[in-house]
Input
Amino acid sequence: MTSPSVTRGPTAPQILGRCRDLVRPALARAVRQLHPWHAEMAAYSFGWDTADGGPPPGSQGKGVRQALALLAAEAAGAPAEEAVVGAVAVELIHVFSLLHDDIMDGDETRRRRATVWKAYGTGPAILAGDALFALAVRTLAEAPGPHGAAAVRHLAATLADLVRGQAEDLLFESRPWTGPGAVRPREYRWMAEHKTGALLGCAAGLGGVLAGAPSATVDALADAGRHLGVAFQAVDDLLGIWGDPEVTGKPVHSDLRRLKKTYPVLAALASDRPAAGRLAVLLGTGDPLDAPAARRAAGLVEEAGGREATLAEAHRHLEGARRSLKSVPLAPGALDEILALLPFLVERAV
Amino acid sequence: MTSPSVTRGPTAPQILGRCRDLVRPALARAVRQLHPWHAEMAAYSFGWDTADGGPPPGSQGKGVRQALALLAAEAAGAPAEEAVVGAVAVELIHVFSLLHDDIMDGDETRRRRATVWKAYGTGPAILAGDALFALAVRTLAEAPGPHGAAAVRHLAATLADLVRGQAEDLLFESRPWTGPGAVRPREYRWMAEHKTGALLGCAAGLGGVLAGAPSATVDALADAGRHLGVAFQAVDDLLGIWGDPEVTGKPVHSDLRRLKKTYPVLAALASDRPAAGRLAVLLGTGDPLDAPAARRAAGLVEEAGGREATLAEAHRHLEGARRSLKSVPLAPGALDEILALLPFLVERAV
Output
């Protein structure tokens, strides 16, 4: 009897790199189908625009969505290549949603560059988003193989979730910080499951669909992706307050300055610690916070347990993702790679 | 031998009314699947919002797209009911495109009411448009029967055309009136084929697809719809200059005041009549025209033959639609109804 040899699998950056290399040519081919103006805006968003000397290192994003689609297909027993159209579709939808969300949220920079609406104008950015949306649907609808129609259904259901989540997020803005109309942490969680969770769930689910996996496997993969998305959002919320400006490219405490209703703040306000009351007073004026006020607010969020609650939320959902993945039989190699990605995504916040 | 009895078929308003009655319940059911906020904006756009006393008569639109989908299915030998999902999808896409186009074009009123972005805000209108887009795809993707996947492919190809046409239209704005960079009438025609033609072509084509018609029939139906769309756009352009403000709900000469590059103006500028030069000077300042200048411009467009050329364009495309419809075998009753709709749509302009 021999004990299994302990081999070290590929690292998270290696896994992401392998997936990016598989998806990139198909993604570029899809983008070339767009009107040249829209292709230019898409390339700019993907960080491919090298006309002005190339993007700063690291600005291309990690490619978590595309990796998840490919690894999910492998986990369901198919070659990664089967899921490339799905990976292309989710990347296109991701950029579509960034383009439109940046307008809705008034965000002027992303990854240290002007957002598309800021660089090209609101109308062109709306239309480029629409073009990417249409291209994503078309990519799946025209996919060769027997699973294209099921893939389109999966994507269409995701898009419905996505816009519902974003609608709630927009509506949160006009709700009060305290009192009966206040946004509860569980409402925020619902929003995050739909807005951020939907697309990662779609990525993993599409991998399963395109691999021809049984519906229980597709559901488990999609569920894991959704959990990962919520964990991802929680980490993003932590970075929006305590992230290093050098890394995030945003000013320190930026979400607090802009009075964004994120999980750490909502969890803090919902606590019964005294700091919650002081935080409510500070936020209650409705005016954007200046730097000292934002620093004070960050301290109060932490004192009221908001930071801790958000980290716990992230870990709870990572655990949920692991549980979903273990609920169905999956190919061990790909499963290990998905599991290796999970902590990598949360490490950003620590 | 008896000569065929001359019976008078239903009138255009009767045909449109019958189709609206068939589609309305399914459309309302689809809209109810939206987030309540988006359902409200959709109802507002469809002219269903009766909360504030009901819309003014005639504000619901004619429902040409939905009628075309249903009649095309009947012409291809299937019951109209088979095409109801297609009619719902094109109506949803139509409203999606109105919501986004009104933002891009800065239009503040439509059918005498505030446009959605003006009434609800830009961000909410962008998102409601996205929600309608997603719902249209979902409606077809989840359609029962064997033709759902082909219908989604048809819609996806249409959407690609639609955004390309709108992109060109946006780019026209920043191009000069004269000289080598000027927009040529044939470029405008290409834009109209894509922007306006695509959706009417899609409506008719979807009717054929959902009826299970052979591809030659689908192509002929789609082609007829596309011609009708271009004719429709030409009529719209005439109304944008010479339409009765009482009927259009827009100020007289409104497209000229806003320096919109429409077919009558481009055709006038491309002519070699002396009025073309005077028109170029008047428009060339780049400033919006006041009422007397717009009246002068309208006179020059007419003098240079722009009005005449646009009417001819409309009639040429109506003829093209008739020709396409007659190129394949179609059920005579439904064909007659489609043919009866054609002049009705152009009469608006006379």
Residues 1-5 of chain B have pLDDT under 50 and may be disordered. The two ends of chain B are 42 Å apart (CA to CA).
